[in-house]
Fold this protein.
Amino acid sequence: MKVVLLAGGYGTRINEESHLKPKPMIEIGEKPILWHIMKEYSHHGYNEFIICAGYKQYVIKEWFANYYLYNCDVTFDLTDDNRMTVHNNAAEPWKVTIVDTGLDTMTGGRIKRVQKYIGDETFMLSYGDGVSDINMNDILKFHKSHGKVATITSVNIGQRFGTMEMEGDRISSFREKNETDGSRINAGYMVLEPEIFDYIEGDKTIFEKDVLERLASEGQLMGYRYDGFWQCMDTKREKDRLEALWADGNAPWKTWE
């Protein structure tokens, strides 16, 4: 099953670093947070990725093109046509398709632009700026159990995001979050049926507003409730928190070792 990762936005709320690189390429423990997310999926058996790039998309392409240089010891033999020998091979079992989905394309439009790489099959989708210790197979099992078009993971944390009204596991609507309420928010980690493309008109379609709200109104959106670790990296403060957890050896999302 393919995993689509949204990695094309400007990341303006963390512009201390995003003015130099896409937000998914900001590093936690000397590895892009995008790499951490891919390791999460890979740990549960999902190794085929489609990255929806946009802003400074060449940075993502260059990082993967030079994966061995960034992650392995290498010897350059300048006496032999600059031959490079890779030591301690750190290759991942990944197939990665990086698509330039446009500079100002909205989230729905980015997903629509990679439709040809997904085909007519169920796929996973998430954002390129948050990590979790969630089990991807549990989300997929839940998704298959209800037969609806879409599943999104819902978490309950005291943050600033818009919230979801839920009737059991069915998501009925969205609204702005009150500072004091305990409603659940969209944490990404979605499973989608190919019918999702019928809900996306074009580049200006905002997935979270135009698509998810319509799915909710039609009873086609379900929420997988998760109460474990989840943390986005939307600000420098959140980045520093993730960095500290990693440095201390207490990163909950590092389930692959």
In short: The longest helix spans residues 236-247.
